[in-house]
Description:
The complex is a heterodimer of chains A (505) and B (256).
Chain A: H1 10-20, E1 32-35, H2 40-54, E2 60-63, H3 69-78, E3 83-87, H4 88-95, H5 103-113, E4 116-118, E5 128-133, H6 134-140, E6 156-159, H7 160-164, H8 169-176, E7 183-186, H9 188-197, E8 202-206, H10 211-214, E9 217-220, E10 232-237, H11 239-243, H12 245-252, H13 260-272, H14 277-289, H15 300-335, H16 337-352, H17 355-366, H18 370-394, H19 398-407, H20 411-441, H21 454-463, H22 466-494, H23 497-502
Parallel strand pairs in A: 1-2, 6-7, 6-8
Antiparallel strand pairs in A: 3-10, 4-10, 5-8, 5-9
Chain B: E1 10-21, E2 24-35, E3 39-43, H1 50-57, E4 65-70, E5 73-74, H2 80-84, E6 87-90, H3 102-112, H4 117-131, H5 147-159, E7 165-169, H6 177-194, E8 197-201, H7 205-211, E9 214-219, E10 222-227, H8 229-234, H9 239-255
Parallel strand pairs in B: 3-8, 3-9, 6-7, 7-8
Antiparallel strand pairs in B: 1-2, 1-4, 4-5, 9-10
Amino acid sequence: MRSNIKTGLPVFVLLTFCLFDSGLAADSRIPFQVGSKKFTESVILGEMVTLLVANQGVPVIHRDQLGGTRILWDALLKGDIDVYPEYTGTITREILAGEGLRGKEDTRRYLSRSGILMSQPLGFNNTYALGMKEDLAERLGITKISDLRKHPQLKLGFANEFMNRQDGWPGLRQAYRLPQNDVRGLEHELAYVGLLSGAIQVTDLYSTDAEIAYYHLRTLKDDLHFFPTYEAVLLYRSDLVGRWPKGVRAMLGLEGKISGSDMIGMNEQAKINKVPASIAAAVFLQKELGVRVQAKKESRVQNFISRTREHLSLVGISLGAAIVLSIPMGILAARSSQKGQIILGAVGIIQTVPSLALLVFMIPLLGIGSAPAIAALFLYSLLPIVRNTHSGLQTIPLEIRESAEALGLSYGHRLWMIELPLASPAILSGIKTSAVINVGTATLGALIGAGGYGQPILTGIRLDDMALILEGAIPAAGLALGVQGIFDLAERHFVPKGLRLALGE
Amino acid sequence: MLGVNSFPHAIIQLQNCWKAYGRVQALRSIHLQIPAEKTTALIGPSGCGKSTLLRLIIGLVRPDRGEIRFEGREMDLQDMPGLRHQMGYVIQNGGLFPHLTARRNVTLMARYLKWKRSKIEARLLELAELTQFPPDGLDRYPVQLSGGQKQRLALMRALMLEPKVLLLDEPLGALDPIIRFDLQTDLKRIFQRLRKTVVLVTHNLDEAEYFGDSIVLMREGRIVQQGSIHEMINAPIDPFVTHFIHAQRRREKVLA
């Protein structure tokens, strides 16, 4: 794992560097950084670029399945990635929505002002479509989207991104005046499972999805021509041309080479036949472009070890920093009620931010990778420790605090010799709570390129592969239990014996 | 500056001290001389300010107005830790640190002040003997001690640094009658032997009379009368003095 840390929080930089980046900087240039979204087609395209670039001897990394459009676009602008596959419709309707762009040249000009270049179309159009099960569509006599107007009782389920995009459900509903109220958002990859089980009856599809044929789905005709075309292109930073010209040339070799049926075929390989994305990409490159590439394959054990290492570092660094900061904050909060209200209020507010949102908020500050994940986990770990330190100190009986003061101990010594030992059970249980939450929340880090046990979970959801999901979920649960056990043991060690007797253990 | 009518041998002097907790006026215009090497008993109905007065002397609360002198020098916040080493403070439930053994409770300050280990050990045994604290209890934790043992231990802790002044806030208040009687006897013996300045807060007139060379009767934040029990009975300054004494006496008769 490479961490790309640019700003802030020197402790993290140092620790992360010591742990992981000791082998960095063989070539002082930043490597060729490929990104991809968290759905299979994007990952395959990202793999293709990666393989072609690597084939030129250019150092390249692929930060795969990073999340949605916003994360990828921000990362591209920031330079955390150099290139990622995108679709023209998404660029005009979502990324640059409201700019009133007309045509590709207009778009190109606009992008170049931000230092972003757009390749020629790769060859296929992956437009949005609505789909439903063939037999249900047949029974209800639905062939086009406007037919849905007659069936307000249908249960609709759309990808979360589709739910909020201008070119998604809000626009579609308005254009077609659709009456359905039972509409829910879910992961695109889960929509097919939902369709089969009957939990939802209509979903958004990508026209290159292999599942359309596999699950016998009917694609509804876009009779009002609402959806624009979504030609696949590569968006890349203009400075990449200067940095890795050979790599860019090789990458642009994909222009015009991938047909719709090629893409559906690769999606089928990866999603239905469970071929790794890198293999599906390599096979295509060899067959269609005659490029012989070596798809690297990590063994399951190697994979597990690096996931574990990533996860432990996310948890260890963020929790360690949180402990170092929270205990003094709790002490300060306990010392004056005014400061206490401010401190407890501030860390309390942080806790109300949903964890996924907090992760995404960190991206503009810290880019993608482990740094923003660690920062978010760190912020998340503060409240339980600060609050327990504060209440642990506050609940020490007044007579004991005053006895210490009356003896003539200085404030520091009272804290160190009397108050902190007495508050130690509360402080430890705060740390334990933080640690257990942290282990679980860290799985979300995979969404912004931090790796860890979230990676197999994310891939498992993408590929609808339960075994893969468990490969991440079971170690994460095990780690949480392990952490809990360690802190239970620590309690025996750190909580003074007299106190344990007094607490009736 | 010493007051005009101060005792030449007063170790602690309070000059026009006032203290309020929010809207509650706990102490009003307190003038008090604590004579050295004598036992002064502070007595009065609950809420009369006697505990607050003691806490003022040890610096746990600061007066809103007025000044407190220790051996003629005004006490200020900077000197407080050092001054506290010259005062021992014992409260009703001992205020013992539950995470430390009896031994470590007593020797905490001596270790903090980097006394020699041999000196600490000698002083510890001397105090155990003085207070009749069982030596085999020294390695127990407070939760493993009886109520009487806890108060003996609290006294040992207060005496460890050989303070000039001993401040006791209802030290026997939480004990049952037999233990209380034993400890009263032992305390009196200890006071006589050590010849220290003692300030004792109690709500029990008998106890005040038993210990006090001088009694200070308080009511609603003011000192009503200071003197011996005989002066209070024979020459009460205020009808409240007589009323208070009679109320206590009657209570004891009823209990007897």
